[in-house]
Amino acid sequence: MSENKILTPEPLVKVDDLCMFFPISRHQVLKAVNHVSFEIQKGETVGLVGESGCGKSTTGRCLVRLYEPTSGHVYYKGKDIAKLNKEEKKKFTGDVQMIFQNPYASLNPRMTVKEIVSEGMKLHGNYKSAAELDGKVEELLNRVGLGKDHMSRFSHEFSGGQRQRIGIARALSVDPEFIVCDEPISALDVSIQAQVINMLKRLQQEMNLTYLFIAHDLSVVKYISDRVIVMYLGTIVEEAEADELYAHPTHPYTKALLSAIPIADPDKTRAKKRIGISGEIPSPINPKECCQFAERCPYATERCRNEVPKRVEVAKGHTVACHLVEG
Fold it and tell me: Collapsing DSSP states into helix, strand and coil, what is residue 72?
């Protein structure tokens, strides 16, 4: 988990009843994000975890306005981002940035590293001369472990880890406050993943950044996150501080996810009980109004299959959406 931080009473980001639906046909709707609500305080890292297809990346894209939500609201510094005026929108695009999952697809192959990193700076006018622009690009590349000699090269000349560092430098170029990290290490070699994670932690301390860290690797999420949100099929099933969630998982889905984390100690591995999840993830197209995990949950009742559970607080800051907890 990240170091203890002083958090402000007003959240930097507030997501209120967010829905993102994609019409498939006249009678079919894919509900990628279904009534999701959470807050992110300034200076913290919130981990958003779940299986592929649970709506993590779609949620992140709504937060940076790459998607316009079907319903619900996203507030940044108390303002609804859907109602910003022209000047506020331009400032928002500088304050809020995204690091994408695929470093091979997210960089323009026709642009040099200097052009990629400086593009946002040119848009926002964050420099006074060509020499200052070059200096800022060089400084950013140094921050992410690259150098001046990389500025004139193209993205195809770099490894995956180096490309992701370029993507991080691009995100930092406009002096953001909030960054959505959309599985930033999942496409990288394991040997490179730790370097990128440690770099993100260092940059957060140096630049007072706030992160939404999207991932499916729970061991990585525990290492970097202050709080963790667990999603399943477009809905939030559990949320708590990282240490609390890993010590006292409550939702059956969270317990199953945590039981699958590998342990380096062979004795502990043998003693550990793996909780299996039967069946496949149901389709998010026209989902039934119920607990979305009911079809795979070994403890599901008729109530679970016919009624949407409410999120209840089981400990301070620890909420769970499960009828078994509601009682």
Answer: strand
